[in-house]
Amino acid sequence: MNTPDTLILTATCASRLGTVDVVTRYLYEQGCYVADMQTFDDARAGQFFIRAEFRRPADGQFDEVAFRDGFAPHAARFELQWQLTERKRKPNVVILVSKFDHCLNDLLYRYRTGQLAIEIPAIISNHPDLQRLADWHHIPYYHLPVTADTKAEQEDRMWDIINESEAELVVLARYMQVLSPELCDKLAGWAINIHHSLLPGFKGAQPYHQAYAKGVKLVGATAHYINNELDEGPIITQGIQPVDHSHYPEDLVAKGRDVECVTLAKAIQYHIEKRVFMYQGKTVVLGN
What we know:
Layout: E1 7-14, H1 19-29, E2 33-42, E3 47-55, H2 64-77, E4 81-86, E5 92-97, H3 102-113, E6 119-125, H4 131-136, E7 141-143, H5 151-164, E8 169-172, H6 181-187, E9 191-195, H7 207-214, E10 218-225, E11 235-242, H8 249-272, E12 276-279, E13 282-285
Parallel strand pairs: 5-6, 5-8, 6-7, 8-9
Antiparallel strand pairs: 1-3, 1-4, 2-3, 9-10, 10-11, 12-13
């Protein structure tokens, strides 16, 4: 899958006149063609968000350091919080998993075929079951068993692996352990979890069984950033699947698997493409 040879400029600041112009005018002055752009102005919060994807000048002359230095004073006038990212750059992603393999399988397929522009330097699990799957993809697999007594030690080792892997994103692909508040604090803003319900409904364990007990007519999945509150982190994406009275809990589980995979993959895609802004405990997602 071809990834555009472009750069992505993202920025946010207080709502004020000229916020779009300060970005687009500078790109024009540098000879950079804007290939794609989304903006959002939160009228209630008074906050502006912009994502501009642009091509380098046609003559090929582009100095990223000079570009950053030149844009900095313009950004300072508007108190912009901004980032510049090369679209083709593949961030390191560490995946946490337990025994359920459907989300991991899906992510590895998208990784192998280039649908997800990432590198996976490590897979960490509290069970040995998915070792062969990781081996087949030539990805290091770390089996770190955990009990109540060894949780702190296990998480310390996990944190070491994440750092040694130079991970920029951690993905909990049905990792069925509640992370400690200390690890949640370390991973805040750069760890994505997939929960198998439409949050904020049916938090915690066995959400499909909870949904069955309530007779719901839709089941779904939620990909969110983690925080110190169980299943309460800022939501990135959600997916749904219609069901009815004839679906027993096992049927809901089966129906939900595909939704979980697609929802998680989409959240990762949005994250690595710099489409997600966290603000006031929730997200702004400038999707395509």
